[in-house]
Amino acid sequence: MTTSHLSTNAAPAVDPDLVAMIDAVFADYHRSGPSHSTGGRAVLDRALWQRLESLGLARLTGSEESDGSGAGWHEAAELLSAAARHGIRTPLGEHDLLACWLLETLGEVDDAIRTVHLSPRGGPDTPVPWGASVDRIVVVWWAGDEYRVAEVEPAALSIREGVNLIGEPRDTVGAELAATAGKPIGAALVEKLQRKSALLRGIQVCAALERAVEMSIEHVTARVQFGRPLAKFQAIQNLISDAAAEAALARAATEAALDVAVATEWDSVNLDFLIATARSCAGHAASVVSRNAHQVHGAIGTTREHRLHEFTRAALAWRSEYGSVRHWDEQVAAAATAAGPEGLWALIADSR
Predict the structure, then answer these.
(1) What is the largest CA-CA distance in the chain?
(2) Is the pLDDT of residue 286 over 70?
(3) What is the pLDDT of residues 140-167, one digit of tens each?
(4) Are 128 and 117 in contact (CB under 8 A)?
(5) What is the residue-wise DSSP string for 192-261?
(6) Phi and psi, residue 245, nearest 5°
(7) All domains in the chain, ordered by first residue
(8) Are 87 and 31 a contacting pair, CB within 8 Å?
(9) Which residue of 46, 220, 263, 314 is surrounded by the most CB atoms within 10 Å?
(10) Does residue 350 have a pLDDT over 80?
(11) Between vectors from CA 132 to CA 127 and to CA 136, what angle results, nearest 5°?
């Protein structure tokens, strides 16, 4: 299932042949690849990665001058969504949209598989996606008077392995980097990194929720109870419609934020509000969709053998990364309060 852009901004159409090819790659991998059970820690499949590289998908948004494919974030959103819909666990977003993008702005990028570790200024470190699995970690930290960035091999760092709710690697990384190490980068670049990280997870949450809704519709249409399909019962219809509405709202808010981000090169005056709104909507939608989807599936939806949990647990895991639901709710409330009654509509409608 291919999602369409629901915002009012003029988003560029994604080549349908590219969308079909991306979906076919992940569908084929899921059919013929290794087991995709979420039990334990997910493994970075190097064979899949090599195939993605050969098709130009591993660095889809990298510039052609740096051996990337020269695509944009709308194409990347289709790639991330397809991986999420098929339950594929791989650090495509962290590699292409975050780590390689950051290095490319500094003129340094090659074929190594990367992730990003942003050590927040004045706050505790957060787990690093795929930290112990990749070739290199791009570390960004506050050095007392400026941000600095350095590319480090995992073996040179202290890493304690961990996983998120869906089994993806989320590793605690200890980086003893001197204040003079690495290269200085501007705060504006770090802010863009934070925005891109947040929206990346929002896109993935939306795709997981849409797949859970799709599976629920398929189940209640096919399942017969008391002589008629479950879809004919009003209570079931209400559960499905609520889940579908929440997923659609999350998608609309996320598409709106993405369209403005791309159109303004991630520098819109109200982009932070749009991203916060998208993440808040997606976070709350994850609760409704997960609850309703499992309820309409009944007992079978709680088993490990059924695939539903691959998507509901993924949505619940991703909604808490690069900012919790509470964090994004507070950001939305703070922006609305600051705008006041006079400026609230302009805050919502302004896409500059």
Answers:
(1) 73
(2) yes
(3) 998 888 999 999 999 989 999 999 999 9
(4) yes
(5) HHHHHHHHHHHHHHHHHHHHHHHHHHHHHHH-EETTEEGGGSHHHHHHHHHHHHHHHHHHHHHHHHHHHH
(6) -65, -40
(7) 16-185 (1.10.540.10), 188-349 (1.20.140.10)
(8) no
(9) 314
(10) no
(11) 100
